[in-house]
Specification:
The complex is a heterodimer of chains A (302) and B (185). Chain A is mostly helical and 302 residues long. Chain A is 68% helix and 6% strand. Classes of the chains: A mainly alpha (302), B mainly alpha (185). At the A-B interface, helix 4 of A face helix 1 and helix 5 of B.
């Protein structure tokens, strides 16, 4: 379990370094081709930061409103509150605000920019379906997202994706208008090759960034599983909760693709799964969540 | 001139590193004290819940006097032990946990009691308080682990020795209960 936590953290760092390298490479490519890389980079980064960090700052309000969550007040939610309070003691973080979503599909998500502004929401279906131990495991998973600053990690990823998309867009537009070329590069045959490589890089960078963002999201799910278990010290609890979520076919009504990465189980329905086929590698590369069976397998092996 | 500047920068870096390390040690040590206080808060909470529980059970199962008295006595003993040593306190609390367990076992035989909303609420509160005590102890042990690791790792260990930061002990659940349970049928 502790090895899992550090392995997942290490892989997140690799991905962050990968983002940095990709941004650097694209900036270099734009600079090489048009000599305006630094400006393009500055514009792209400022734009990306402005858009994605505004939503980061308001993430809790946005996510809760989108999921139509209401505050979990009243005696029927005593167990929910008690379990979270206990887990917060174990995690050493303040108790987040608790919400419920009136939906029969069992699911849960955490949001908020830091542990002080965090909120957790569960569906009424989740409260009805899981027993005490399983519910505790799911809540521990959500608190792990809070404690691991997954909203921040996710926002960094989105910022990087946005910056790269803008940067390559600027690059491609300048190319269409026929921007000034460096004289040195057009005389040198090797430079022509590099220029082609740079164009390919600029064109493919946004896609690569997207794939890395999804890989990161999946990695953080595994991390939240492992660090949630570090709170409860009982892997079978989460494993059996995930089994129940897997076997329950209903899907959250208010779950859109934009919000998919928030939920504990992906709220998107995959037709291929119902036929029992393994979906292709390419398809899975765009998933926000690792396959639930793989998560259960990892937990059962802990 | 350059040499002086380089030395000055190096000294500044060293001072900052020492201050940061020292503050880190203080922070982790305080977290242990906070964790210990957290455990006591939860134990107090349990003591406060028990009179209510005993009253509720009495209304339905008055002739289970032995069990009820055992719980009341264990609670009184636990409150007395709270001011004593950590080991005594832990033992008294374990006796109380055992007494509560048998009370809930007895309650199983009374369907009216089990259906009582007040009893159900108290049972939920006590179960979650027990959880919280366990979690608070777990957090305490985690805090001790990170503090002990820190004061034993280089280079913080030099500073820890200089300022007298000493290793803390873990909380050992159920002292004297380590012997394997003897099961007979």
């Amino acid at each position: 379990m502790f090895e899992q936590i550090s392995a997942n953290k290490r892989r997140t760092w690799f991905l962050l370094v990968g983002f940095g390298a990709l941004i650097a490479a694209v900036t270099a490519a734009v600079t090489f081709l048009f000599g305006l890389g630094t400006w393009g980079f500055a514009i792209a980064v400022v734009f990306a930061i402005a858009t994605s960090w505004t939503s980061y700052w308001c993430s809790d309000r946005l996510a809760l409103a989108a999921a139509r969550a209401r505050p979990a007040d009243g005696p029927e939610f005593a167990r929910y509150h008690n379990l979270v309070e206990g887990l917060c003691i174990a995690a050493g973080i303040p108790k987040p605000r608790l919400f419920v979503v009136d939906d029969d599909a069992p699911n849960a998500f955490a949001t908020g920019r830091n542990p002080e502004h965090a909120a957790i929401a569960v569906t009424t279906g989740l409260l009805a379906l899981l027993d005490r131990v399983e519910l505790e495991a799911v809540l521990a998973h959500e608190l792990a997202h809070v404690k691991n600053y997954d909203m921040l990690v996710g926002t960094i990823a989105v910022t990087a994706v946005g910056a790269l998309a803008l940067l390559s867009d600027i690059g491609l537009r300048v190319m269409l208008w026929g921007g000034d070329r460096d004289d040195d590069s057009s005389n040198n045959p090797l430079a022509g090759l590099i220029a082609v490589a740079a164009i390919v890089l600029i064109a493919l960078a946004p896609l690569a960034a997207r794939l890395m963002q999804f890989a990161m999201s999946r990695r953080r799910e595994f991390l939240a599983d492992a660090s949630g278990v570090a709170l409860t010290r009982y892997p079978p609890g989460l494993a059996s909760a995930l089994e129940k979520l897997r076997d329950n076919g209903t899907v959250v009504a208010a779950g859109s693709r934009a919000m998919a990465q928030l939920w504990i189980e992906s709220p998107l329905d995959y037709p291929a799964d119902q036929e029992g086929n393994r979906r292709s590698w390419l398809n899975r590369a765009f998933d926000t969540h690792p396959p639930i069976d793989e998560r259960i397998e990892v937990l059962r092996a802990m | 001139m350059t040499v002086v500047l380089v030395v000055a920068v190096l000294v500044a870096i060293l001072v900052i590193a020492v201050v940061a390390t020292y503050n880190g040690l203080v922070r982790t040590r305080n977290r242990i004290d906070n964790a210990q206080a957290q455990i006591e808060v939860q134990l107090d909470r349990r003591h406060d819940l028990i009179p209510n529980l005993v009253e509720t059970v009495k209304g339905y199962a008055a002739h289970e006097r032995q069990t009820l008295e055992a719980v009341t006595a264990a609670r009184a003993h636990a409150i007395d032990a709270a001011s004593g040593s950590l080991a005594d306190q832990a033992e008294a609390e374990n006796v109380l946990s055992g007494a509560l367990k048998s009370l809930f076992a007895v309650a199983e035989a009374y369907p009216d009691l089990k259906a009582n909303a007040n009893f159900l609420a108290l049972q939920e509160e006590l179960t979650s308080t027990e959880d919280r005590i366990a979690y608070a102890r777990q957090f305490f042990n985690d805090a001790v682990l990170s503090y002990n690791t820190r004061i034993q790792s280089f280079p913080a260990n030099l500073l820890a020795r200089m300022f007298g930061f000493s290793a803390r002990e873990y909380f050992d659940g159920d002292p004297g209960n380590d012997a394997p349970v003897d099961v007979r049928f």
